[in-house]
Specification:
Helix content: 40-55%
Strand order of the largest sheet: 5-4-9-10
Structural class: alpha/beta
Distance between the termini: 35 Å
Largest sheet: 4 strands, parallel
Oligomer: single chain
Radius of gyration: 29 Å
Strand content: 5-15%
Length: 578
Amino acid sequence: MDYALDRFVAEVATAIRATEKVPADLVETQTPKPNIPADLAFPAFRAAKALGVAPLQLAQQLATSLRLPADSLIGAVTATGPFLNFSIHPQRFASAVLDEIHARGDAYGHDDQDEQQTIVVDYSAPNVAKRMHVGHIRSTIIGQTLVHIFRALGYRVIGDNHLGDWGKQFGAIIAAIMRYGKPDGDSETELAQLEAIYARYNEEIKENPELDEEARRWSLLLEQGDPQARELWQWCVDATLRANQRNYDRLGVQFDHAYGESFYEHMLPAVIQEAIDNKAAYRDEGGAAVVEEAGPNLPTFLLQRSDGGTLYITRDVATIEFRIREFDPVRIIYVVDARQELHFRQLFALVRAMGYAHDIELVHVPFGTVFDAHGNALSTRKGNMVYLEALLDEAVRRAREVVENKNPDLSDAEKAAVAEAVGIGAVVYNDLYQDPRRNITLDWGRMLATEGNSATYLQYSYARCRSILRRAATEGPLDDFTTVDCTLLLHASEQQLIKYLARLPDTVREAGARYAPFVIADWCYATAREFGIFFEQCPVLKAETSALRSARLALVTATAQALKNGLSLLGINVPERM
């Protein structure tokens, strides 16, 4: 899909090629340096070298040879040394951008790269029988945002919550339930009690090794399909799903599937045998399935233990085989902790050694650790772990204080709704505004700041736009957009804001190409900042003429829409009033 900025860039390339002075394959443009008063530049160095002329001379020749159509989005063209600089036509560009935003509404910024291609995003993936904590929030939030981004780019996206609901630890969990009794209460309380009796059982194993054998026995019974073991296991799964769903609902997270590791249990014998048949693995003397030399600089690892037990990687191979067969994806994206990078290098190498996914892109999107405000990594062992439900509750409580200070006249119902949007938005944005690989800190002061790079500031910018429009509506109905003369928006701050609005579509593309939600967060912050400058320098409701007032109201409307769209891709709601 071509937006105004795309058309401007294409017109520049077309105009240069039309001079017939530069071969088409040498027409390359770039963004000028910030101190250059232009919007796009053609550096003549490479073309001049190929043509055997001086770069300065080529730039001058092109400047005098260019011919532009009457309705071109290109305004001024100047040769500055070896650069040919192009500036946007302010009136035509303003009309084109605002027309697009008005016409596309909530879909502004979206694209149609390939509606026929499928992408699978594997994210969140908490362990069953444990409460979700801040360690799970990064995968959950980053993954959901990538789902939003790729859907906006036109792909068919399948979000899968690959639950950790299988493995040796369930033997100890079931044994602990049998020894101490089944927990009761609401789902979150049940999980807290499960964690406690699991920890208690493991402590007692140190004094009584027979308990370890009991856990192994229950683990084997579970894998063999023992009815009592399966019933207790299913109860743990159901309790976990109920507790997690409350957190997902508050975060606006929705999955297409929640296939746990147990879903692939029946596939595992065939997967192991297939790896051996393809010579991607072999049986050692003890009966273990071993993988070695799967790829450069990869250590040897097991696909199956000597006692017949399977591992995470066994189930991950089965998962890829299932996804290829079931969904026919062009890409599978795993949003998982950076500490698992070796695991995914091994997994991807093994799958390809087995003959799978040679034409499918397998991507690991890693992320860093969450630290508290004192710089300490959050850990259950250290006793400073923050559980997700408590984190969201605290964020909303603190946001309510901000709302009370900013707008005490709101009704209690509105305050509660705004506090929920602001509190959850603060948590989400704190994760997304920087490169996922970087560690993040839970700093409430920064997260809920009404100035600077925070969700609260961005939400407030949107609410300010809506407030201006409400005040304008009290003075009479707003003009129909088709009658507004956007060519009047020639003030420097108006033009700068319009150019930022025009960048949203390309920002979404870049975010998808780099698996980088922070690219959209950067755009949101920069756009909100430019809106603040425009608001200070250009009176809207008291503009010099009624026509200019209407044009500026159209710009405010477009800014609100674009900010809403950008924040929506990040999973952040925008309150109408704050």
